[in-house]
Specification:
Length: 462
């Protein structure tokens, strides 16, 4: 007799069995992602565990994987004592699912739920994070990797997700230093941690074999830190930025700069020998230090492989017609040592001192924080250029929701598709994009303290 049962036989066998009526319902219950408090051993073992805010108790949150062209459905369950919401960073998403409290949805109250359910058009490395009081909630741990898989992924021995972060801990008790929005960090470079690490620990290590080929997916989940990275005992290529494949793999020869919220996909071969430790290293405090270590145990194969092929391109990546595109200007102003005397806030002119008294330090296009009318109202499908001038003394990682853009070089050539771009003081920058995704989309600095103290605006695509 076979153990296989037809669905009808199965249901028949169950008929009349008390208490199982709920079974089909349970089978349909949505997958959840629960925001809740947990503890994590971020710091070295001699320190206490840190109380963190997590998705499903994990720091960073669980790696979500979904095939390109599929849908991601998760019910956010809020077990925190404060309202929250989730933004799916870099996904060219349906606006109603973008997770921006106060713009695309109401924040989910404690005990509440919200059903996210959306299509993922692009394969690549993305991430998700809280978008309610982000400068505090993301710093407390509410973020995770979102991987959209190519139908034909490049062949590698290991696919390694590396969520880079920093944490500002009180050395006395290893708990988060408060307040999260200290005026000193808001008005300067943002909240920078005193402990740096990867995947929730200061000392991330993963064993590899000599000659193995790895895909490294780097995600900068920190509030404000710009990581300067290099490979050691690894050689390879950059294959994608912010989830979007480069037209051709680029050999990693110089330092990699990873601003907050940016991602870099690498394919690397382990060139270190057995007994050595390969590493992703970062520059800080005038020194190169390990950010992720790969101790080499054993040898995979004797021969080195050829360079990888380019990833298949994602759909809708052209930005046509930039010569006749609508042009917009956005000045970035304010901050400590800035030249700004004042700006518009809540519809009236306000001096920098008065702004600072209200915890606001920055302006985009002359406006402090959100406005009733958008920075730009765009017609669906039109190409737009935004020229940004950084008149502050700090770097800013500018992020557009809902659509990727390309940098426009002086000579008019277009750079790679990105969703977050690093702007340096006194270096004007121009981006161009096709406003092909209808809805209300934030445009803000991803130094999250800056976003909370003035550097947030929005565009409307109809
Ligand atoms: Cu990761 Cu409003 O963004
Ligand atoms: Cu900024």
């Amino acid at each position: 007799m076979t153990l296989r049962m037809t669905r009808r036989a199965f249901c028949g066998a169950m008929a009349g069995t008390a208490g199982l009526a709920a079974l089909p319902v349970r089978a349909m219950a949505p997958k959840t992602l629960t925001a809740r408090v947990a503890t994590a051993q971020i710091a070295p073992p001699k320190y206490a565990a840190t109380e963190v805010w997590t998705y499903d108790g994990a720091l960073p949150g669980p790696v979500l994987r979904v095939p390109q062209g599929g849908r991601l459905a998760r019910r956010l369950v809020n077990d925190l004592s404060v309202p929250t919401s989730i933004h799916w960073h870099g996904i060219r998403i349906d606006n109603a699912m973008d997770g921006v409290a106060g713009l695309t949805q109401e924040a989910v109250p404690p005990g509440g739920t919200f059903d996210y359910d959306f299509a993922v058009p692009d394969a690549g490395t993305f991430w998700y994070h809280a978008h309610t009081n982000s400068f505090e909630q993301v710093a407390r741990g509410l973020s995770g990797a979102l991987i959209v898989e190519e139908p034909d992924a490049p062949e590698v021995d290991r696919d390694v997700v590396l969520v880079l972060d920093d944490w500002l801990l009180n050395p006395e008790d290893a708990q988060f230093m408060e307040p999260f929005g200290h005026p000193m960090s808001l008005s300067h470079g943002g909240r920078l941690g005193n402990l740096l690490g990867t995947n929730g620990t200061y000392d991330y290590a993963r064993e590899v074999k000599a000659n193995e080929r790895l895909r490294l997916r780097l995600i900068n989940a920190s509030n404000a830190r710009i990581f300067v990275l290099q490979l050691a005992g690894l050689e390879g290529w950059t294959i994608a930025l912010d989830g979007m494949p480069l037209p051709a793999p680029e050999p990693v020869e110089a330092e990699l700069i990873l601003a907050p919220a940016q991602r870099i996909d690498l394919i690397v071969d382990v060139t270190a020998d057995v007994g050595e430790t390969a590493a992703l290293v970062r520059f800080d405090d005038d020194q190169w230090r390990p950010q992720a270590r790969f101790p080499v145990a054993g040898t995979a194969s004797a021969t080195r492989r050829d360079g990888p092929a380019a990833l298949p391109p994602n759909p809708n990546i052209e930005v046509p017609g930039i010569d006749s595109a609508r042009r917009l200007d956005m000045a970035m102003e304010g901050g400590a040592m800035g030249r700004m005397s004042g700006a518009m806030m809540n519809g009236r002119a306000i001096g920098f001192r008065e702004m600072a008294g209200q915890g606001q330090f920055w302006a985009l296009a002359g406006q402090v924080g959100m406005t009733d009318t958008p920075f730009a109202s765009l017609d669906r499908g039109e190409t737009v250029r935004v020229r940004m001038t950084n008149e502050t003394a700090f770097a800013h990682a500018m992020h557009l929701h809902g659509m990727h853009f390309r940098q426009v070089a002086e000579d008019g050539t277009l750079g790679p598709m990105r969703d977050t771009i690093l702007s340096y003081p006194d270096e004007p920058l121009e981006i161009a994009f096709v406003a092909d995704n209808p809805g209300k989309w934030l445009f803000h600095c991803h130094m999250l303290g800056h976003a909370a103290s003035g550097m947030t605006t929005w565009i409307n695509v109809t």
